[in-house]
Every structure is written in structure tokens, then in C-alpha cells.
Amino acid sequence: MTVEVLAPLFAPRGILVLGASTSPDKLGAVMARSLSTAGVPLALVNPRAGVPGFVATVAEGARLIAAEGGRPDLAVLCVPAAATPDALTECAEAGVRAALVCSGGFGETGEPQGIALDEAVQASIAASGLRLLGPNTSGFFAPARSLIASFVPGAHELPAGDVAVVASSGGVNHLLSYRLAGAGLGLSLAVGLGAGLDVDHAAVLEYLADDEGTRVIALHLESTRDGEALLAAVRRASARKPVVALVVGRGDVSEFAQSHTGALATSWRTTRSVLRQAGAVLVDDEDQLVAAVAGLRAGRLAAHPSPGVALVTGQAGPGLLIADALAEAGVRVPRLSDRSVARLGELLPPLTFQANPVDTGRPGPGFSEVVRTVAADASIELVGVYGLTEPVLDMVGAVGEAGADTPVIVAMDGPASEIAPVRAAAAAAGLPFLTGPSALARALAAVVEDARIRAEAEHQAGLAEDPLVAPVVDDTGGWDEPATKALVAALGIPIPPSRVVALDTGRTAAHAALDELGAPIAVKLVDAAVLHKTELGGVHLGISDHAALDTALDALESIGSRRVLLERMAPGGVDLIVGVRRDPVFGPIVLVGLGGVAAEASADVAIRSVPLTRAAAEALVRELRGSELLFGWRGGPVLDIAAFAGHLAALGALVLRNPWIDELELNPVRLTVDGIVALDAVLIPRKDDDVNADS
Fold it and tell me: Does pTM top 0.85 for this prediction?
């Protein structure tokens, strides 16, 4: 995908409006007025208009555009859904190369008629090669070209700039564009995908990756049909410019698998994890998105695992708010060197804190030198400056005078009448400008996160690793716990010593197993159809003598058990959940979480897409909020992270190599003084239809 592929859509040399109307309030008339500012030939098509300025057919419109020196690149369809397939065919025959379909009533309705229209539209564009944006979208805008393909009047007021928006929703596209403009940020392109039947997030990201007029991309994602294409596009775009991603669907539980892994790997959590893995900076809401874009628009830091951030404030109280937010985000705020502190002591009152954060008191003369000194400190890669609008100091001007080589982001608060000219001055000086302590902290954290992500990727790419060769396993059926554990053990993952006993031959073998394994043991129901044995009363722990074993066997037989697993119990330690799952959008993913059977409650999990290198697997483990528990916390056991990372990579490779495996979960995996051991294992095969669809 290059800029040229979607240029007929986003940089057309001629535009046709199908369904243009003489009635000023109708969609076709509104869209025609909106497009009239684009400065390219415009043809209004309506077979029933019968008035000057309109043409009856697409072919006539194409000839009109050609006569005016243009090309009929783009058709904007303001026609009913039912008329769309034929209209697209007519457009393709007239040489149109791209189309924007505004109307709804297609597959998004879920109704058979709408789905049939989807299929007809797809057949039309597949036959012609025409690219389609929509249906059911309010359009797009490219202010630098005065090209506003939107029926929302306010879109014409959006300023040109170098920030792009790619949004699932046309409404969110407009919302984010207005918010970015309110923060003084102009737009290169802003696209609402609507149904995304053809041109989707991946296609627009590929276009923007090559667009020299775009410096930062803001991505809003509700869903995607092609997860692999999306991740490839994010990887390519983020290698060239920052991508800030807002993912919707925090409460989506509709696609849970029955296992713990499925409950933890929601589409929202998975999408965020794999987008970050691909290079995107994640945000939680539109305020964070605006702040992140503002910070990153000023430029990226060099890749760095933990950039040092300095904070210079005009008032101590707001400075503490910012410092708290940076600490929460894991941003390093290092103490300045003795030399820097000594110089600041010459510039500032003695009662202020000067080692970082730097409290200037009420800022005044010498502020430029303060910023210059802080920015020059060897431990600092990024500086944040905060203050209130006061007549004693032009803070933006002072930051500009500092001439710092280190990037500086400025935030101020004050009356709206005073903030507006300050924002304009900051824009003229090329300084990122925000309002509010929280916004400054978010911007600083986003710039740091972008540097961290790239450093992590560079580190992993630079490590030589032996290729993983996973075995091909026959789907023999009956993947109960013993069979699944045997598969896991073949990958090198430790499992407890165990014996499987058939109860229909008596209990002699079970009692012999107790003696052989040594007490205490766990006694479990063996049934591939039961995923959560504990809830059924199918697990009995701490069995230490033969009487207790008989009691457990009685209980298991009462719930229909015919085979049991006797297993030596592991010593205490730290429990984890490990799972690999075939996500319906992104394919196989690996999940690690702290908590074992309590993992759903803590939700301390980390996720990566497969294939997974050992280096990436190590980073996955260290991402857990409670990862310190795995490395000798208060005298506890220490994880051999290199070996464990190898196990995670091997599990991912196994599922990737064996399409019939839908999910494999180890829960819990216990870290003990003797190392890790998988105490339970569940394998869920895919349905035959799903496997066949991949073949």
C-alpha cells in the first residue's frame, strides 16, 4: 500500500456527487456544498434534477470533469442503500477509482437484506478494483486541500496541520478532530470508516505511513475484521511516526471462552496488548489521546528503555500533581546532578526545591536560564514546564529563549482570554502546549512510552535466538488433563509426578499410587469435558493416608468419575496462569497472569501475539504489575525467567503449528523453591468448521 493507492479517495482530481439534490436540506445538497471548496472539478449527478448545473448520468459527469481538466477519481454516493451496488458499477464503468458511501442499511443492520447488499457491493468493487470508504459514514476531511467530504458544517472550521485521525466512527472522527483543533493542533487527514467494508484502519494507516504531511496518527478502534493486516500496518506506520491508539470495548465479554484464559483475554485487552506490541502508544480516553498527540507532535525521543524527565514549575502544588501522575505512569524523574543543582541555587530562591522537580517559586527573570540548565543535565531526555498566566513572565517566550536541545512540553492555566494568545504564541514557536497539570503529565508519559516501546523492540530484534520448532500433534481426541500434561511435558514444562487409575478395576492401584508418590497427593476427576473440576467437586487436595483416599474416591465416584488422576502435591509458592488462545481476530496469543485460580479477580495479566520470541516473552513477564513476586520477594522463590520465557514461546509455537488447537491453559503454574510446575492443564480443540476454514 502506498500513497498512490488511496490518492483517488483522499486527493481526488475530480469529484462526482451521486444523489445531488436541488433541495438544500437533503444529504446530496449538503455534501455538494461541502465539497465545492475543494478546488477540483465537481459534477452533480441526479437523473431527475432536470435543472442547469446537474447531469443525468455518471458518464456525463465524468465527461464534464474531464472537460474541465480533471479526472473522475472520487464518487460520493448520497443514494439509498438499495441503489448503491448498481451505482458503484456505473461509476467504475465511467473511470471512477474511489467511492464514499454515506448511507446506512447494509450489513451493519444484521438483517438479511442488508447482508445481501453488502455482498453485492463487495462483488461490484472486487470486479472493478474501485476503493470504497463506508458505508454508513459521515465521511472524511483533508483541510490542507480544503477537501471536506462531510455533511457536518463545523468540519469546514478545522485547521490544516500534520495530525491524522483514523476512527471507526464518523462521529468520533469529528469529535477527536474538534478536540485536537481546540488544543491548537491542525489536521492532515481525518477519516471516519463507518462499516469499513473495503477501506479499513489498516488501509488508511498504510496510506498515512507514506504521507509526508502527517507527523502523528491518532487511531480510534472499535473492531477490525483483519487483525493481522491491522498489526502489520501499525508496525509499519509506528516505525516512521508515532501512532496513538484509543481502543473501545472495555466491558466487552461477548466472546469469552469458557476457560480462565478466555475470560482474561477480552477482545479489548487483547487488542490493546497487541497494538502496543506493534508499536502504538495506548490511551484510555479522548483527553489522554489529545495530550499524547500534542506531546508526540513535537518529535520523538531516541529509543530509550527509561528516559529521564525533568519538571520545572512556577508553583509547587501543581508540580506535585504532575509528579504523582508521572510516578503512577512509571516515568523516571531523576535527581539532577550536583552541578545543575548548584547552578539552579544561583538562580532561584533558597526555599524552593531544586533537584527535580524544580520549583521556581513565582517565576520571573532568569526563567530561561533555569529551563536551559535543567534541559542540559545529562540525566534528562525530556522537560515539562508548568505555570499560571502571570504578567511578570512570558513563560512561552522564556522557554523559547532557553534554546534547549532537549524537547520541552509546556502547560499553563489561566483565564480563557489569556490562554488563547499564549497557545497561539506556543504554536508560532513550535512548542507543544496544553492546559492543566494532568494533560502535561499525560503528554510527557506518552513521549516516554513511545521511546520505551521502540527500545524494547530494538532490544528484542538485536538478540540472536535459535528458532523454535514445535511438534505437529495428531488430534486424537479425548484431551483430558493427563493427556494435556503429557503434551506440555514434551515441551519441557515440568509437571508433578502422577498416576492415572481406572476405578472400575478396583482401588488397589490407587492405594499403591499413594504409597509410590508419597503424601500428600491431589486426587482429581479425569474427564476432558469438564473444564473446571473444582466447581464440580472433582478435586480433593492434601490426601495423606489411605482412609482419606477412600473418602475422596467415594466422593468422585458419586459424581460419576470412572478414572482419577493421583498427583504429588507441590510445595507452596507463587501461582500464575499461563494460556495460549486462538483469538478470532488476531490469531494465537499468549497470556500470562498472576494469581492462578484467582487470576480473574486480580486481572494482572500481560498478552502478546504469536509468534513470540524468548526475548519478547521475558518482557511479557516483566510487564506484570506484580512481577516482583516472581523474583525473590521477601525471601520467596526466584523465577528462571530465561527458561520460563522459552516455555511461553514454545506454547505459542505449538498452537501456531497445530491449527486444531483452539486453547491451551495451564492454571495454576506454581513457582516454588524447586522451580515451576504446571498443576493443571486444559486443552480445547477447535471446531471442525474453524479448522477447515484455515486450511
Answer: yes
